[in-house]
Amino acid sequence: MSVVDTGSGAGEPVSEDSVARPRRAVERLLAGNAWMVFAFLYLPILVLAVLSFNDNRVVGIWGGFTFRWYGEMFADRNVMGALRNSLYVAGISTVVSTALGTAAGISLERFRYRGQRAYDGLLYLPVIIPDVTMAVMLLLFFVQAFDLAGALFGIDARYGIGTISLSHIAFNISFVAVVVRARLAGLDGRLEEAAADLYASRWKAFRKVTLPLIAPGVAGGALLALTLSLDDVVITSFVAGPGSTTLPVYVFGLVRRGVTPLINAVSVLMLVASMMLVLVSLLVSRRQGE
């Protein structure tokens, strides 16, 4: 039993149960809200996964359990070709954007030079501008670049894997730089100074001290770039050419003609790939933290 002052000068006894009851009500309300959010986010994924095993071609009518659509997916040359293009573009853009984004993050966090503020602002433009705006910008850039290359050197450049890879590199650099800078901000710069005091060159100090310390950030940025490249639809659809369709663009084209269990199977494949990348990222971060 506890005493609560009601403001009139007299203390009234209040039980601990009555004090704890509103707190429990708030906790239950928050817990219910959390479950509703989880259901809103993950129930559609569960429905997608279940309907990918539907034997009926009509998605809304259950016709029994089957792996037929997964077999058709792996036997479909168009799907496998689009998947191969996606992996090829994602591999190129991830390697290049990780290297350039890491260098950009280090230069912005560790060095001071003229025009740094302007460069810092321009670097983050791909993060904040809409995808459609980025796609139109890249399309106009390639149009002008192809015309210039044809006029000066007689090169007949065309849209394809190269233009998609360059476009993905253009927006992935910013995301990698953000992750690497966040990692660098938490490091003690005196460690690099100590390496320099021990007669280590700038490159050796970076290779032996800085790079191992920022490795989790570099790995996280690379996995983020890989995921963004594998999932991109808008920018890729603007700069793709014949024979260079990626898997997300191919799925988007199929959806416009109607949803089938084959599309569900392809979507589940992409979902599993994204979840695997997230798990790898968590494992790398945990191992580096140990």
Task: Describe the secondary structure blueprint for this structure.
Blueprint: E1 2-5, E2 11-14, H1 16-51, H2 68-75, H3 77-110, H4 116-123, H5 125-128, H6 131-153, H7 161-185, H8 190-197, H9 202-231, H10 234-239, H11 247-255, H12 261-289
Antiparallel strand pairs: 1-2
Sum this structure up briefly.
This protein is mainly alpha-helical. It has 12 helices and 2 strands, in the order E-E-H-H-H-H-H-H-H-H-H-H-H-H.
What does it look like?
- The radius of gyration is 27 Å and the shape is globular.
- It has helices at residues 16-51, 68-75, 77-110, 116-123, 125-128, 131-153, 161-185, 190-197, 202-231, 234-239, 247-255, 261-289; strands at residues 2-5, 11-14.
- It is an all-alpha fold and 290 residues long.
- The chain has a two-stranded antiparallel sheet.
- It has two domains: 2-51; 68-289, MetI-like (MetI-like fold).
- Helix 2 (68-75) packs across helix 12, helix 3 (77-110) packs antiparallel against helix 9 and helix 8 (190-197) runs antiparallel to helix 9.
Q: What is the terminal-to-terminal distance?
A: 48 Å
What is the CATH domain class of the largest domain? Answer: Mainly Alpha
Radius of gyration: 27 Å
According to CATH, the fold-level topology of the largest domain is MetI-like fold
Low-confidence stretches: none
Quote the average pLDDT: 82
What is the helix tally? 12
Approximately how much beta-strand content do the residues carry?
under 5%
The backbone outline, from C-alpha atoms, is globular
Tell me the CATH architecture of the largest domain.
Orthogonal Bundle
Structural class determined from secondary elements: mainly alpha
The share of residues in helices is: over 70%
Q: How would you name the CATH homologous superfamily of the largest domain?
A: MetI-like
Q: Main β-sheet, in a few words? A: 2 strands, antiparallel
How many structurally independent domains? 2
Number of strands: 2
